[in-house]
Each structure stands twice: as C-alpha cells, then as structure tokens.
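#lab-general

N.A. 3:47 PM
ok so I finally got the sequence cleaned up, no stray characters, all 245 residues accounted for. can someone with queue access submit it? mine expired

B.Y. 3:52 PM
send it over

N.A. 3:53 PM
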Amino acid sequence: MTRVAVVAGGGEHTGPALALRLAAGGFDVALLGSEFTSADKTVRRVEEYGRQCIAVRAELTDARSVAAAFGRVRTALSSPAVLVTCVGPEPLPGGLPEDESADEQRYTAVRRALRPVFVCCQAGAGQLLRHRRGRIIVVAEPVNADGSTWRTTEPVLDGLLGFTRSAALELARSGTTVNLVAPADHADDSRAPAHRAVGDDSAGSYADGVAHVTEFLVDERAVGITGQAIRVAAARADVPLLRER
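B.Y. 4:20 PM
back already:
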C-alpha cells in the first residue's frame, strides 16, 4: 500500500532532511511551498530510495492555493497519511520603537507565521481522516534573533502550542495525532553541538534531530502520543523559538 507524506514549507535543510527520512521509511513525498531552493536535488535523493517525490508550488497562506496543491498531490500520488508543516517566522528588525506602529508590525508578523499551519492543516486534515491513523507534525524552525525579537517569536510559539493542543483534541477520535517539534533553549540545554550550524543537515544538527523525532511520530508505536511539544537541540550560535516555561 502506498503511503504519502506532505512536507509543507521548511528551510533549505529542515525540509529536505524530513523528506529524505520519510522516504527512507517507505513514504512517497510531496513538497509544498512558494519557493524551492533545492527541490530538484531533494527529488533525486528521494527517488534513490525507490520512492516518488513531487514539488508543488503553493502560497501557504492562501487557502485556495493550498487546497489546489493537495488536489494535485492526491492525483499524482495518493491521499496523504502524514502532514509536516514547517514554521519559520522572520525576526523583526531590532530597535523597534515602543509604539502602536511597532505593535502592529509584531502582530502582523505573528499572524503571517501562524497562518500556514492553520491553512495547511485545514486543507490536509480531511484527507488524513481517510487513513484513521493520520499524523500532523508542526515543526518550528530556529531563528537568529536578539533579545528584542522574543516579542515576536514567543507569541508565535504560544500560538503553535495552542493550535497543537486544540487540533489534537479535535482530531483524537479520528485517530489523527497532532504534535509540535520545536528548538530547545540552550540556556538550559547543554546538549547542542556548538560547532554545527542550524542549517546543517548532517548527523547532530537540528534538521537531523527533527527528522529523527518525525520518524518516530509517524510510526505506529507513537499512536498514543498527541498534543505534545517535543524539544530538539539546535546549534548554540542561534536563538531558538522555544524557552523553558
């Protein structure tokens, strides 16, 4: 039986790392996004595992565009059983003044970061329900940020946590699990390898760690794990999204 996974968004390293790990686990893979920096290379590498891989352009904040993209995935491959949506909010410039204009910019940035998760999950959930063992995994990308940028990234993380828990409850009876994978805080986590960049997809990088966690979450052994936030160490040179609560 063909199993299909959709990877929506994702950085230059996280997206390909996820696609390759899913392919190694027996999934055909569809890449969704508005920009592809290494799609051809990822497609070739997935095909080396004997799996199919397609890249479908879609504006992830636009519901019609994403719905059409899922339709193309269903036609070319099959209805997906796994949806991985990567979220990478762009930090605002430092030194924003404390006024209503700055607050509006932060609010807009938070909405822009969160919308792809909602849109992709709304479009994909109906197709995942057909499998009775669907998996939705939200991946928060690390962000290079100074202290002031936490005013944007912390609300994004809070939104992702709230969405994950709400969606997990809503989809529990259907057998679909929803989990969040996010960076650990290096102020409290000394396991991150200092010599590796976040973008590095080799062993020990954040992308590789996310791929490991995703590999487990899509397995039948993880059927009882839902509504959880799982932390993965990122490189020390970067400030991650997730802090100790």
